[in-house]
Amino acid sequence: MPSKRPKTRFQDIADNINLIGTYTDEFKFSVYDNSQLVRDGVARCLSRISEAAVKLGSTAQDLLPDHDWRRIRSIGNILRHEYDNIQDETIWAIVSKHLLPLLADIQNVIPQLPDEK
Fold first, then answer.
1. How many separate domains does the chain show?
2. Torsion of CA 37, 19, 87, 84, to 10 degrees
3. So what's the pLDDT on residue 73?
Protein backbone atom coordinates (compact mmCIF):
# COMPACT_ATOMS: atom_id res chain seq x y z
CA MET A 1 0.00 0.00 0.00
CA PRO A 2 1.54 3.34 -1.04
CA SER A 3 2.51 5.81 1.65
CA LYS A 4 0.01 8.41 2.73
CA ARG A 5 2.97 10.78 2.99
CA PRO A 6 4.64 10.73 -0.45
CA LYS A 7 6.09 14.23 -0.08
CA THR A 8 7.88 13.15 3.10
CA ARG A 9 9.14 9.93 1.52
CA PHE A 10 10.50 11.73 -1.55
CA GLN A 11 12.13 14.27 0.76
CA ASP A 12 13.71 11.39 2.72
CA ILE A 13 15.26 10.13 -0.51
CA ALA A 14 16.50 13.61 -1.45
CA ASP A 15 17.96 14.16 2.03
CA ASN A 16 19.87 10.88 1.92
CA ILE A 17 21.23 11.57 -1.56
CA ASN A 18 22.45 14.92 -0.27
CA LEU A 19 24.05 13.22 2.75
CA ILE A 20 25.90 10.86 0.43
CA GLY A 21 27.17 13.92 -1.42
CA THR A 22 28.48 15.45 1.80
CA TYR A 23 30.04 12.19 2.97
CA THR A 24 31.85 11.74 -0.33
CA ASP A 25 32.86 15.39 -0.74
CA GLU A 26 30.49 16.00 -3.65
CA PHE A 27 30.62 12.46 -5.06
CA LYS A 28 34.38 11.89 -5.29
CA PHE A 29 35.28 8.21 -5.55
CA SER A 30 38.65 8.73 -3.85
CA VAL A 31 36.90 9.93 -0.68
CA TYR A 32 34.52 6.95 -0.78
CA ASP A 33 37.25 4.44 -1.56
CA ASN A 34 39.64 5.58 1.17
CA SER A 35 37.32 5.45 4.15
CA GLN A 36 35.41 2.56 5.66
CA LEU A 37 33.43 5.10 7.66
CA VAL A 38 32.30 6.85 4.47
CA ARG A 39 31.46 3.53 2.78
CA ASP A 40 29.36 2.55 5.80
CA GLY A 41 27.61 5.93 5.79
CA VAL A 42 26.82 5.62 2.09
CA ALA A 43 25.45 2.12 2.61
CA ARG A 44 23.21 3.35 5.43
CA CYS A 45 21.88 6.20 3.28
CA LEU A 46 21.21 3.78 0.42
CA SER A 47 19.29 1.59 2.85
CA ARG A 48 17.13 4.54 3.88
CA ILE A 49 16.56 5.47 0.24
CA SER A 50 15.48 1.90 -0.41
CA GLU A 51 13.07 1.90 2.54
CA ALA A 52 11.52 5.21 1.50
CA ALA A 53 11.04 3.78 -2.00
CA VAL A 54 9.34 0.72 -0.53
CA LYS A 55 7.01 2.97 1.45
CA LEU A 56 6.20 5.00 -1.67
CA GLY A 57 4.99 1.86 -3.43
CA SER A 58 3.50 2.50 -6.85
CA THR A 59 3.48 6.26 -6.28
CA ALA A 60 7.19 6.42 -7.09
CA GLN A 61 6.74 4.63 -10.41
CA ASP A 62 3.65 6.67 -11.25
CA LEU A 63 5.34 10.03 -10.65
CA LEU A 64 8.88 9.22 -11.79
CA PRO A 65 8.68 6.32 -14.26
CA ASP A 66 12.16 6.89 -15.70
CA HIS A 67 13.84 5.35 -12.64
CA ASP A 68 14.21 1.68 -11.84
CA TRP A 69 12.20 1.60 -8.62
CA ARG A 70 12.37 -2.17 -8.35
CA ARG A 71 16.15 -1.97 -8.11
CA ILE A 72 16.03 1.04 -5.80
CA ARG A 73 13.77 -0.90 -3.44
CA SER A 74 15.90 -4.05 -3.67
CA ILE A 75 19.24 -2.43 -2.77
CA GLY A 76 18.20 -2.37 0.88
CA ASN A 77 17.80 -6.14 0.97
CA ILE A 78 21.10 -6.61 -0.81
CA LEU A 79 22.88 -4.36 1.68
CA ARG A 80 21.31 -6.19 4.64
CA HIS A 81 21.53 -9.78 3.47
CA GLU A 82 24.34 -9.93 0.92
CA TYR A 83 26.66 -7.38 2.47
CA ASP A 84 29.62 -9.71 2.23
CA ASN A 85 29.28 -10.00 -1.56
CA ILE A 86 28.89 -6.32 -2.40
CA GLN A 87 31.59 -4.77 -4.53
CA ASP A 88 32.55 -1.16 -3.78
CA GLU A 89 32.58 -0.51 -7.52
CA THR A 90 28.93 -1.56 -7.73
CA ILE A 91 27.88 0.78 -4.94
CA TRP A 92 29.91 3.58 -6.47
CA ALA A 93 28.24 3.02 -9.86
CA ILE A 94 24.87 3.51 -8.16
CA VAL A 95 26.08 6.64 -6.40
CA SER A 96 27.83 8.22 -9.36
CA LYS A 97 25.41 7.36 -12.17
CA HIS A 98 21.94 7.18 -10.67
CA LEU A 99 21.58 9.35 -7.59
CA LEU A 100 21.97 12.83 -9.06
CA PRO A 101 19.41 12.28 -11.85
CA LEU A 102 17.03 10.81 -9.26
CA LEU A 103 17.60 13.80 -6.99
CA ALA A 104 16.89 16.25 -9.79
CA ASP A 105 13.62 14.54 -10.65
CA ILE A 106 12.58 14.34 -7.01
CA GLN A 107 13.31 18.02 -6.51
CA ASN A 108 11.00 18.74 -9.45
CA VAL A 109 8.16 16.54 -8.17
CA ILE A 110 8.16 17.52 -4.48
CA PRO A 111 6.69 21.01 -5.03
CA GLN A 112 3.86 19.47 -7.06
CA LEU A 113 2.77 17.21 -4.20
CA PRO A 114 0.13 18.32 -1.71
CA ASP A 115 1.22 19.31 1.77
CA GLU A 116 0.74 16.62 4.37
CA LYS A 117 -1.10 16.90 7.65
1. 1
2. 60
3. 97
Q: CA 56, CA 3: separation in Å to the nearest integer?
A: 5
In a domain, 1, yes or no: no
pLDDT tens digits in sequence order for the chain, 117 residues long: 667 899 999 999 999 999 999 999 999 999 999 999 999 999 999 999 999 999 999 999 999 999 999 999 999 999 999 988 889 999 999 999 999 999 999 999 999 999 987
- Report whether 16 contacts 101 (CB < 8 A): no
Please report which residue ranges of the chain form alpha helices under DSSP H: 6-23, 29-33, 36-56, 58-63, 69-81, 88-109
**Alpha-carbon distance 86 to 56, whole Å?**
25
Residue pair 88/39 in contact by the 8 Å Cβ criterion: yes
Structural domain harbouring 45 = 6-110
* Position 42 in a domain: yes
Classify residue 87: in a domain, yes or no.
yes
Establish if 115 belongs to a structural domain: no
Contact 60, 24 (CB under 8 A): no
